[in-house]
């Protein structure tokens, strides 16, 4: 469940940063919005979620834990070489940190999308495993796997959309196109 109003100031600033990487397309805020905007480049589609986070200097594993629900939503995008998902966090003072979701978890990146360099004498930032909403991974299912029922447009385990009278909005024949068999 999302609380509070959308982070309009943070998203506005994030869009300005994102424009340096490519064409930015905003997503209308709403209860079903998984990302705030996406960046389109010649080779990539990058779906970005912007979150206000007070402890900006927190280690990546703490950020992954606090944002586990958002990370789980971002993982609904099908994984591929052309699709990336990123989590951008910021403070009320306008400080940003950028993370890419990988199979291994969260990987800290620079604002241009490249891997963040390690400071002298430090190990490069390791990807931090990101878990689902419950804090545990589902056995036998990769964290990047997401399957949708193409015919009904619903998630697995959920029925087709219904109207207020309980009748299905998907037609019994013709795949919901209103065409007789």
Explain how this protein is built.
By secondary structure, the chain is α+β, with helices and mostly antiparallel strands. It has helices spanning 8-18, 60-66, 68-74, and strands at residues 23-26, 37-40, 45-52, 83-90, 96-101, 106-109. A six-stranded mixed sheet has the order 1-2-3-4-5-6, sandwiched between helices. A hairpin with a 5-residue loop joins β4 (83-90) and β5 (96-101). The longest helix has 11 residues, at 8-18. The radius of gyration is 19 Å and the shape is globular. The termini are far apart.
Could you name the CATH class of the largest domain?
Answer: Alpha Beta
Shape: globular
Radius of gyration: 19 Å
- Assess the beta-strand content as a share of residues: 15-25%
N-to-C SSE string, H for helix and E for strand:
HEEEHHEEE
CATH topology description of the largest domain: Trna Endonuclease, Chain: A, domain 1
In total, the number of strands is 6
Summed up, the helix count is 3
Strand order of the largest sheet: 1-2-3-4-5-6
Low-confidence stretches: 125-181
Structural class of the helix and strand makeup?
Answer: alpha+beta
The tally of domains stands at 2
Average pLDDT across residues?
A: 73
Helix content: 10-25%
End-to-end gap: 41 Å
Q: Could you give a short account of the major beta sheet?
A: 6 strands, mixed
The name of the CATH architecture of the largest domain is 3-Layer(aba) Sandwich
């Amino acid at each position: 469940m999302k609380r509070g109003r959308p982070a309009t100031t943070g998203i506005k600033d994030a869009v300005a940063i994102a424009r340096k990487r490519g064409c930015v397309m905003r997503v209308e805020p709403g209860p079903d919005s998984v990302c705030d905007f996406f960046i389109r480049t010649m080779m990539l589609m990058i779906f970005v979620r912007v979150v206000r986070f007070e402890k900006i200097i927190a280690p990546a594993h703490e950020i992954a834990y606090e944002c586990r629900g958002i990370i789980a939503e971002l993982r609904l995008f099908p994984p591929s070489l052309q699709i990336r998902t990123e989590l951008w966090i910021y403070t009320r003072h306008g400080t940003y940190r950028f993370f890419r979701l990988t199979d291994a978890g969260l990987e800290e990146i620079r604002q241009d999308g490249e891997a963040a360099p390690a400071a002298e004498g430090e190990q490069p930032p390791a990807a931090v495993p990101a878990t689902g909403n419950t804090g545990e991974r589902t056995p036998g299912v990769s964290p990047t796997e997401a399957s949708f029922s193409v015919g009904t447009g619903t998630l697995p385990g959920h029925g087709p959309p219904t109207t207020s009278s309980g009748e299905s909005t998907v037609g019994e024949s013709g795949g919901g196109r209103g065409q007789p068999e």
